[in-house]
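pinging the channel bc i need a second pair of eyes. not urgent but kinda urgent?? the chain im working w is below, pasted from the shared doc
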Amino acid sequence: MNSILVLNGPNLNLLGTRQPEVYGSTTLAMIESACAEHGARLGLGITCLQSNHEGALIDAIHGARGTHDGIVLNAGAYTHTSVALMDAIASVALPLVEVHLSNIHAREAFRHRSYIAPVALGQICGFGAQGYLLALDALHAALSKAHPE
């Protein structure tokens, strides 16, 4: 069974109450539960982690090598600022899908730049919590193609 790390960055612990007009009313616990259920249907083991600290996210990415087969990452605002996260992702050489609840390309100009995108398998944004499930589908397909049974 392939294992996926679902990693969430700063302020995502406040989902459901933080700017619901932008991010919706779905909580992080609800997203994590949906990921676990969807992962089980796909035959994926799911581990979820959230941190508001850049270093903890980098440690989780480093720790994923040899433990997980892929990563779903919503780096929050670090998407637009963190070369360190980009370097960590590149260093572990695991397939990663970048996820955002809102469409970052339809928001403020500073959100249009992603340091994650160049080292990601792909980017899913604007579909709310459904984006996480789409990311799991994409990783499942990529892993199945890389390791056909």
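so The chain has one domain: 2-28+38-76+83-146. and The mean pLDDT is 92. — does that match what u expected or am i reading it wrong
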